[in-house]
Batch of 2 targets.
Target 1
Amino acid sequence: MITDLLMALLDSPVMSAAIPPTLAIAIVTATISVMVLAHRLSFLTVGVSHSTLAGLGMAVLLGLPLLPAATLFAIAIALFLGMMPERRGIHEDASTGILFAGSMALGIILLPLAGTRQVDLFGLLFGDILTIGPAERSWLWGLGLLILIMAFLSFRSWWSLAFDPISAAAGGMPASALRLLLYGTIGLTTILCVKLAGIVLTAGFMILPASCAWFWCRSLLRLWLISTATAILGAMLGLVLSYACDWPTGPAIVLVLSGTFILSWGLAWLKQRVRRVN
Amino acid sequence: MSCVVSIHNLRYGGSVPVLDGITLRLDAGHFMGIVGPNGAGKSTLLHLLVGLIQPDHGHIDLFGQCLKRFNRRKLLRHVGFLPQLPTQQPHLPVRVRDVVAMGMIDYGNPFVPAGSFDHSVSSVLKMMGIRSLGHEDYRRLSGGQRQRVRIARALVRKPKLLLLDEPSAALDNQAQERLYRLLRQLCDEWGMSIIMVDHDIAAVSSHVDSVACLNRRIHYHARRGESIPDDVWKLMYGEHVHFMAHDATCIGCSQDAR
């Protein structure tokens, strides 16, 4: 039955066109999700993605191209959150909460002011990969490649920094610069994801793949491989579900990934119980 | 003998300095212990030595180069640093071998394959007596085992200078003694220079070449065979301190205690 659905999915021009960008987004977000979890930045990810609403609102109001404007805004927000705790002594979760609420409020006020300009609010909030245009497609490919290059160059350093920031910095690693680079990359990844999952569900893509893999790994490489495999399978299954049940694509994928997480967590718990009994 | 660390008139902490007027020198192959009460500035001094924080006044030279002016990354390649044992539980899924290999990472050269660290990692794990733990999950280790892994990480690059902040924390007496003996061996055989901050004055003093008594400033710097006057201890800890002698060459203990 799944094979039939997959064949039908591939036959549909709209759905088959959505497969490559969806898979690319899945691979990139899975890669970054490893660092989001390692650095405990889940709430920051939620904050940055929701703050993007203000960037999109401003872009709509000023008639700017949505994705480039939102990209700059997300990077600015992420870097600001990265610098704020160091400079002002405010804890990161508080500063994220403040920016999250403020930017959402600004976005909600700005978007209706756009008036007659056509704004697909549902698409912004929950994503719509099926309506992706050629310009957006090129932008996303470029962004995805840039994120993967940055991740490839910094992955080991970010991991080491997450494990023991003091030892890493004492070894000559530019800890603050690497941290800001990670925050900027998270900002970029958020934008990459907005077209697929929307502002509301983007965080799911950036937290769930690594969360599913977390219980089954003892090395960075394995964690990345399992996260990526989970994200690819989740994305494909989500697309199939979306096609079969006529569900929006982003929520369908997030639902599949959430289910995978519950399954993974349950199996890990069961494994631990069995080990204790033996 | 070549100078590895030279600290001159160091001051840190703003209007109420944590460290003031610190002047110290460490030669190659020398093992120095730093003792002092809580809040004396011992860890701060080590953080200054690896450039994690910048002094308000004075300067630090490592291997004859100014830490502030010279390429910090190049200088610190020859320094191993063990910070205090963190109170937070580790949360990353990572093997012991990978933790030790983190000590080899050069962020400026991300293309070095992880496998090229294998030989160095294996030999340092063997040296620390934890070879069998190589493939274990770091999160499952006891506090003492974790501390030994962290020391292995600080040693994996075979640094010329080793800075240890309370390395004996979480170690049992036997492991402590083994560690101190290993550090002594590293100084004598490899010519490594070591600065070790520790609270166990008696244990430290029986293994090191000199002891610096620190409480905001260096109150006394005793060489092996030299005893530290009672009034220095009183000045540091605010009350009379009595030490039991370990052996004939033990430094730090007053003549009366011997």
Target 2
Amino acid sequence: MKIVLTVNDETIRTDVEPRLHLGDFLREHLSLTGTHLGCEHGVCGACTVRIDGTLARACLVLTVQADGCRVETIEGLSDSDEIADLQQAFHERNALQCGYCTPGMLIAAQDLLLQDPDPDRNTIREHLSGNYCRCTGYHAIVDAVMTTAKGRRGE
Amino acid sequence: MKAPAFDYIRVATVAEACAALGQHGPDARLLAGGQSLLPAMNLRLASPSVLIDIGRIQGLDGIEVHHDRLRIGALVRHETALRDATIASHVPLLTEALRHVAHPAIRARGTIGGNLAHADPASELPACMVALNAVIEVTSPRGTRRIAAEAFFTGLFQTALQPDEMLATVEIPLPTPAWFFQEIARRSGDYAIVGLAVSGDRLAFFSVADRPVLRQATAALDLDPPGDLQATGPMRRHLAGVLRDRALFALGGRT
């Protein structure tokens, strides 16, 4: 099926099979391998992207469903410097080890920070509850999000 | 895993959706947010030959009070409903229940109509609709049919929907009485081990049978829940009793 979508502000015209989910499209067709695939049934959050500004699981969206939509991946958020401070805070606080969950964590955390400039730890944990980390644990990740929120508030 | 191959049709109206359902028969499935159907397909628990994408039908995403009813369109997304001031002021039970539905990314895409039509016995919203005595409106080439929520959920992932019918709207009678909602889950966003939605004297348990189970506040708790990896049957029955006692205490100590 022929579709047109924008990925990280670039217009993509393509022809894809209906069964191709957005995660595979981004990785295999566009070589945007920052979108990680873990469980492929919506549980782990590694494939989190933004579609028309809201969070989505790339493994639970058919590429054809994204026809006409604006898709943003970790590459886009990273290149635009939108989350440079968040990335820096993750780095400084060691909020990652293997890094598999990190792109999804960053996008989900940024989604929260856009909605709530002053989240408490519980709110952060709740918002990131759909993103699994199997090595670092969550404490450092929550710390990094708190630090970023403080920084953005100018504290 | 990846979903098996299927044909994909995008429709623009409810009439087109019903016509496509009629044309393609029971192997076709409606696709809205896809947050339950696509995982089932990726796990190959479902393998429809045709997906009919209703996600872009206009006019099914309204939330409005109409006389003494709150009407919610099938394509309203969970996150939209969770943040909606009309729902929060008229049916706070629903707002509280929505906080427990999956995670932000799933809620951002999954739809209320899809949740109800999927009829997962562990899902929060079917039980809420049963407790709230909601009416589910379905559309087909023959017109509109109104089904009481209690009669809509007929079994494990089974509903009263006919093959060419589509869930269009859910309607909740107002005003809603005193309410209670709690669920017990191992992690935030997980399916409940046991849950309870209460509206007035209507207690709707979920995750205790193949569909929501309605009990009156004063009735004996005669549940016989199944066991699985999360909990044994007796543990579920015990937890259901705990939730019932908490509800009765919260709502004024009627025990």
